[in-house]
Amino acid sequence: MRYSGAMCRLCRRAGKKLFLKGTRCDTDKCAVDKRETLPGMPPKRRPKRASGYAIHLREKQKAKQIYGISETQFRRYFELAAHKKGVTGEVLLQLLESRLDNVVYKLGFAMSRRAARQLVTHGHFLVNARKTNIPSYLLKPGDKITICDKSKKLIEDNLKSDLPVPDWLSLDRSTFEGVTKHLPKREEIQLDIKEELIVELYSK
């Protein structure tokens, strides 16, 4: 079941910014900067030392929360990654990054992955000229993402933020068109995730 509670609570639980609210996380309104304690813990109480299992589990939960997917979906991605060539942890992150909702966010069409998922679900995007409303759709190298003509007015303000686009993607702001140049390499995935801990958790 997908989490539907307060996003800032997830960041506080992880102990770091997961950027679940996009650019708001860089402002002084960020709950991680304002409240250093874990949710539900008194301000002066020291957190318990985490066990090895808890550390592994927390890393998996953090990855799930960043991409906004359920446990069932995450396990399915892991199993898919385990059967592909390459390092399982890196392939797992590659699959998660190539989701349509994540790419829409990375291209700057939405200010957060959650907002990107909503835009995709409402049918605002085309993949290779075909309307696609499945957030989990996995993009391949060469896939072209465009915005429906009627939706350009809705999204053009987001593009004005001029956020950097990852090297594995290209964006033409004048035509509202993005292209997946290649699948992301590990060094191109700028996330503080220790994927090897996730692999170890599922391998136990």
What does this protein look like?
The protein has 204 residues and is an alpha+beta fold. The protein has two domains: 7-95 and 190-203, Ribosomal Protein S4 Delta 41, Chain A, domain 1, CATH 1.10.1050; 99-182, RNA-binding S4 domain (Structural Genomics Hypothetical 15.5 Kd Protein In mrcA-pckA Intergenic Region, Chain A), CATH 3.10.290. Helices cover 41% and strands 8% of the residues. The chain has helices spanning 7-14, 31-34, 52-67, 71-82, 88-97, 100-106, 113-121, 152-159, 195-203; strands at residues 125-127, 130-131, 144-147, 169-172, 177-180. Strands 2-1-3-5-4 form a five-stranded antiparallel sheet, covered by helices on one side. A hairpin with a 2-residue loop joins strand 1 and strand 2. It starts with 6 loop residues before the first helix and ends with a helix.
